[in-house]
Write a structure and sequence with these properties.
Elements: H1 2-20, E1 36-45, H2 56-60, E2 66-67, H3 68-71, E3 74-80, E4 86-93, E5 101-107, E6 109-118, E7 124-125, E8 129-131, E9 137-146, E10 151-159, E11 162-168, E12 176-190, E13 196-209, E14 220-226, E15 233-241, E16 245-254, E17 261-266, E18 281-282, E19 291-292
Parallel strand pairs: 1-10, 11-17
Antiparallel strand pairs: 1-2, 1-5, 3-4, 3-6, 6-9, 7-8, 8-12, 9-10, 11-14, 12-13, 12-15, 15-16, 18-19
Length: 295
Amino acid sequence: MKKIYIIFPLLFLLFAACKKDGKSPSKPDPDNDGKKYEVNFNIGIDADEQNLQRSSKIKKLNNTPANLADLATFLAYYVFNSDDKLVTSLIQTSTTPNFGKITDGFAAGTYTVVLVATKNKPTEYDSKHIVALGSDTFYQKFELTVTASTVTQNINLQRVNGQLEVKFLDAIDDETLSIQYSLENDYSLLLNNGTPDISKPYRRSETKNIAPSLFGITNYTYKTYVTNTVKPIKVVVTVSNKIFGTYGKVIDSVMIYPNTRTILSGNVFKGAYGEQGFTVTYNELYGNDTTVVEY
């Protein structure tokens, strides 16, 4: 019976000790006490995405990232936790001090970081999508694991759009007033995976007035960026002329590829310099594929 009286005091002392330090033997310590740890990002552009032309300059860069400000004026930063809930966001412009450098703080854990930069300011943007039609666009998504230490990471964004170039090989007629370029089936960009949002197509157009100084020149060129890199687009060229009124060409089933320039080249003008057929070619920019389409 004496042994029983000895055990009870020992159990009481053990319970009191657990209660005193606020810990229970049945519950492990939390991973952290809410403390946040500093995370720094230095954001640039992948060397292979710097230019829309192949050149020896690119080969000499040895994948050194380009300065973000050289190719973009807008940067959006979004961070999601493991439950896919947005925990922080930030917008920078080229006028922001230290554009492309971000300092943030997180509790220990795993997060998903989404970064998107554009040459021109988007017309719409949030944590789900970005509408930057006609603008060069760069993107990166990655997982970030935060532990009890300061983290500094260099992040290189990659171009997700392609470029469209329309080149007129024949001379501009002296009576030409303007040229309109219309694109059907361009898209916004989904930020969860960096792909075009095919659920909502856009039609956009741009008109260029033709000054008398351009009369008679050849190889007149129009360039724009296209976000739709997954489905064919339609390109409509409409010429406004003092004598012939409006006329033009419809170029169907044009494919645009990421980080690649698609060139449509041919003859379109009526008038003093004559009218000829129009040939469309898709020329390599810095991708490995070359496709030629004629009609």
